[in-house]
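Section 5.1 Outputs to date
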Amino acid sequence: MVSYQILEQLQSLVKQLKEKEEGTKDEINKIEGIIKSLKEEPLNDNFSGTIQEIDAFIETAKESKETNELIKYHKLNLSRWTEELSLLIDGGGKVTFDYEQRKGREI
């Protein structure tokens, strides 16, 4: 089962990116590490798309020369991911659309 501390740490980091509208390489790497560990854990299927989207965002951020501009551009996604992670932490709720249904078009 997924550790809620890991999910809370991920939520905190995503929220920080959103609020500061900037991120350090260290923060991006921490999120990447958390996502990697979450992919190895059983996770509520309703939220697998959220994890895939954050993973795609982090991959793009790592390759971007303008990480802070990318973060500003994805501020609404960061807000949504924060909310979706809250639902996952609370053990309920369901994401309306997942990454496969969106076909990654938001990233």
